[in-house]
Amino acid sequence: MQKAILIGVDFPSHGSTPMEIAMEELKGLAETAQYNPIAIISQKLTAVNPKTFIGKGKVEEVAEVVNHNSADIVIFDDNLSPAQNKNLENIFKCRVIDRSWLILEIFGNHARTREAKTQVELASLKYALPRLTKMWGHLSRQRGGIGMKDVGETQIQLDRRLIRNQITKLDRKLKQIDSEKKTQRKSRRNAYKVALIGYTNAGKSTLMNQLTGANALVENKLFATLDPTIRKIKKNFPFPVILSDTVGLIDKLPHDLIASFKSTLDEVRDADLLLRMVDISDSNANRQIETTNKVINELGVEDTDSLLVFNKIDKIGDPEILKAHVQRNTEAICVSSKDGIGLDTLRSAIVKCYESKLSPYRVNIDYEHARVIPQIRKHVVITNADYEEKFIRLHLRLPPGGKEKVNEILKQARQSASVRRE
To answer: Which of 400, 335, 402 is nearest to 193 (CA)?
Structure first.
């Protein structure tokens, strides 16, 4: 396992997240990417050094730590410019990456499906393109001679063209995948769609398994789930309800990665209800809430119905901590996906949200067509039935698309009766 030095910078403008919490998260990311963090170094700055990001004295300190520990890689918690990245590698004499590239590495390691692999490769290439340095310059130094002066530059230009061509190819591939996903979502348009959204490792996949009986991957690591899992919630639900598990969120998620995962995040945009998952046992749970709300706003779904779900209450030793969180967020539903605590309350809340979207409707059915009532019951809720002299009046509650489905069933019944009479 490669030895890593972690670097964090505390800017006054970074908000309320304490440096030790930010670095603990970076440590978790590094370990997930199979690095061994051997030292954590931080610095308070009011402005970025344009050449090296951190100050000159801190650069010298890091270089000594790298040399003393024979470190293989230095990982920055903030994004570096291509020039800063190059300058720091020249000084430290080892590989230097930033938080965005670290997350891309993790996504690359965890990608399993064609869609996830394509999304990660596209984001990685978009990130790498402006960071190509004269990595082939050693050719001109080794071979020398007249006319060899620009060998390195020519190779860089070739690399850039190859990467741009691959980006174009992957963009087309993702558009095709997105088109397939849209077709799949159309087939679910008459179901009530619920999407899990929240910080990585908040327990979304465990809740998914509990509510649907799915076998989604559950691991105690960051970004264990990249591909959306979509299943029907069966237990205790009288209506067709679809639940989707989505990729986890995190602070400073690379912009290109968000763009590449558009088709995955469209499951959130298409949802009728969002379950905003929070690991309430996390020491900085408030940041999880803020990050999730920020992404919801960026996706333009802030007006979609949502339920705030505090997960992992079984891991909280002091009940006063949970009480304080609930007092600040009185609408939150407290659950333990692992132990099944609070899941019936959550199911009831989902049903209540769905029922609020059902619209009242009445339909009269001739007695000769009464046999279609069980078929109608599959698609709507029958709240009452009045048996009149010549017909049955059904009082219904309709989900989206329910009215069209009922009318289609009745139309087919009448056509069938007409054919029999002829």
So the answer is: 400
Q: Name every residue whose Cβ is closer than 8 Å to that of residue 36 and which is 6 or more positions away in sequence.
A: 1, 2, 3, 4
> Does 138 lie in the same domain as 239?
no
pTM for the model: 0.72
CB 193 within 8 A of CB 273: yes
Residue numbers of the domain that contains 93 = 2-108
Least confident of 27-31, 144-148, 192-196, 296-300: 144-148
Number of domains in the chain: 4
Please compute the mean of the pLDDT values over residues 40-54 and round it to a whole number. 93
Instruction: Quote the DSSP letter at residue 77.
Output: S
Last residue of a domain, one of 149, 184, 219: 184
Alpha carbon distance 164, 161 (integer Å): 5
C-alpha span between 306 and 301 (Å, rounded) = 10
Cα–Cα distance for residue pair 382/391, rounded to 1 Å: 16
Which pairs from 169-173 meet CB under 8 Å and 24+ separation?
A: 170/118, 170/121, 170/122, 170/125, 171/122, 173/118
- How far is Cα of residue 286 from the mean position of the Cα atoms in its chain? 18
Across the range 268-284, mean pLDDT stands at 89
What is the pLDDT averaged over residues 353-361? 86
**Do the bridges between strand 381-387 and strand 391-398 make them parallel or antiparallel, or are there none, so unpaired?**
antiparallel
| 229-233 sheet: strands from edge to edge | 229-233, 241-245, 192-198, 273-279, 305-311, 333-334
CA-based angle 337:340:346, to the nearest 5? 80
Cα–Cα distance measured from residue 290 to residue 251, given in angstroms and rounded to the nearest whole number: 10
Distance, in Å, from the CA atom of 246 to the CA atom of 272, rounded to the nearest integer, reads 15
Task: Give the per-residue pLDDT at 261.
Answer: 65
Q: Rounded to an integer, what distance in angstroms lies between the CA atom of residue 91 and that of residue 83?
A: 12
**Predicted confidence band at 249 (pLDDT cuts at 50, 70, 90)?**
confident
Q: Which of 292, 294, 258 is nearest to 275 (CA)?
A: 292
Q: Which helix (H) or strand (E) holds 339?
A: none
The separation between CA 150 and the C-alpha centre of its own chain, rounded to angstroms, equals 44
Coil/strand/helix, residue 96: strand
121: phi > 0 → left, psi -120 to 50 → alpha, else beta; which?
A: alpha
Query: What digits encode the pLDDT tens for the residues 306-353?
Result: 999 999 999 998 888 899 999 999 999 999 998 999 999 999 899 888
Final residue of a domain: which of 320, 355, 390?
Answer: 355
